[in-house]
């Protein structure tokens, strides 16, 4: 079973890219972020035409998350985090799909730092940690996937010295990510590639993709009850090179065992 996360950076404006990737790669379950579309403007029809069911949590102009499945029904379990400090922002959606609980998330950017946006990021991250602990307590197989807007270590950012003041690399944010992993979650790509340079995002400016000046901010975390099924994973870098594409590339993992 292949599960992917993709910050599409505008689901309607980038729809040809999304559909091309879905048709070529055929991931089983997909978490999308940054839909930038209100609830009634999600392109459900073209996505269903490719064989995917979909649920989504839209928001006009900003944010927005969705889950897609071609391996069975999507049984929504939650949209929004418990105690979300700003429930008007569409940043979390969760469902049971093919025997797995999938939480799709778009963690706040937090810039500029310091300031209210950074404070909101920290508060949202704390709520995610609390909810993640509750999910682990169930013992169910869980995948938390999305754009976390955090580079966990210096290995995850091109020229880390240039990012010391950025909210994505702030010590407080990296510490929260470490706390999340300490609950027992496995950072899947780092489990497979412990020492390699891996990026999932390249800015549009200064030829960042051409220079491979990237960041690893899109993550798929696995609960202990499913981490042992991890078989493979990677980043579909070629998608970042397509015309009118997102500044993120789809990031994926493959799990042993059939979808059930």
Automatic annotation (TrEMBL):
<dbReference type="GO" id="GO:0003677">
    <property type="term" value="F:DNA binding"/>
</dbReference>
<feature type="binding site">
    <location>
        <position position="149"/>
    </location>
    <ligand>
        <name>Mg(2+)</name>
    </ligand>
</feature>
<dbReference type="InterPro" id="IPR004808">
    <property type="entry name" value="AP_endonuc_1"/>
</dbReference>
<feature type="active site" description="Proton donor/acceptor">
    <location>
        <position position="147"/>
    </location>
</feature>
<feature type="binding site">
    <location>
        <position position="248"/>
    </location>
    <ligand>
        <name>Mg(2+)</name>
    </ligand>
</feature>
<dbReference type="InterPro" id="IPR036691">
    <property type="entry name" value="Endo/exonu/phosph_ase_sf"/>
</dbReference>
<feature type="binding site">
    <location>
        <position position="34"/>
    </location>
    <ligand>
        <name>Mg(2+)</name>
    </ligand>
</feature>
<keyword id="KW-0479">Metal-binding</keyword>
<keyword id="KW-0378">Hydrolase</keyword>
<dbReference type="GO" id="GO:0006281">
    <property type="term" value="P:DNA repair"/>
</dbReference>
<dbReference type="InterPro" id="IPR037493">
    <property type="entry name" value="ExoIII-like"/>
</dbReference>
<feature type="active site">
    <location>
        <position position="106"/>
    </location>
</feature>
<feature type="site" description="Important for catalytic activity">
    <location>
        <position position="218"/>
    </location>
</feature>
<dbReference type="InterPro" id="IPR005135">
    <property type="entry name" value="Endo/exonuclease/phosphatase"/>
</dbReference>
<dbReference type="Pfam" id="PF03372">
    <property type="entry name" value="Exo_endo_phos"/>
</dbReference>
<feature type="binding site">
    <location>
        <position position="247"/>
    </location>
    <ligand>
        <name>Mg(2+)</name>
    </ligand>
</feature>
<feature type="domain" description="Endonuclease/exonuclease/phosphatase">
    <location>
        <begin position="4"/>
        <end position="248"/>
    </location>
</feature>
<feature type="binding site">
    <location>
        <position position="147"/>
    </location>
    <ligand>
        <name>Mg(2+)</name>
    </ligand>
</feature>
<feature type="site" description="Interaction with DNA substrate">
    <location>
        <position position="248"/>
    </location>
</feature>
<dbReference type="GO" id="GO:0004519">
    <property type="term" value="F:endonuclease activity"/>
</dbReference>
<feature type="binding site">
    <location>
        <position position="7"/>
    </location>
    <ligand>
        <name>Mg(2+)</name>
    </ligand>
</feature>
<feature type="active site" description="Proton acceptor">
    <location>
        <position position="248"/>
    </location>
</feature>
<keyword id="KW-0460">Magnesium</keyword>
<comment type="similarity">
    <text>Belongs to the DNA repair enzymes AP/ExoA family.</text>
</comment>
<protein>
    <submittedName>
        <fullName>Exodeoxyribonuclease-3</fullName>
        <ecNumber>3.1.11.2</ecNumber>
    </submittedName>
</protein>
<feature type="site" description="Transition state stabilizer">
    <location>
        <position position="149"/>
    </location>
</feature>
<dbReference type="GO" id="GO:0008311">
    <property type="term" value="F:double-stranded DNA 3'-5' DNA exonuclease activity"/>
</dbReference>
<dbReference type="GO" id="GO:0046872">
    <property type="term" value="F:metal ion binding"/>
</dbReference>
<dbReference type="InterPro" id="IPR020847">
    <property type="entry name" value="AP_endonuclease_F1_BS"/>
</dbReference>
<keyword id="KW-0464">Manganese</keyword>
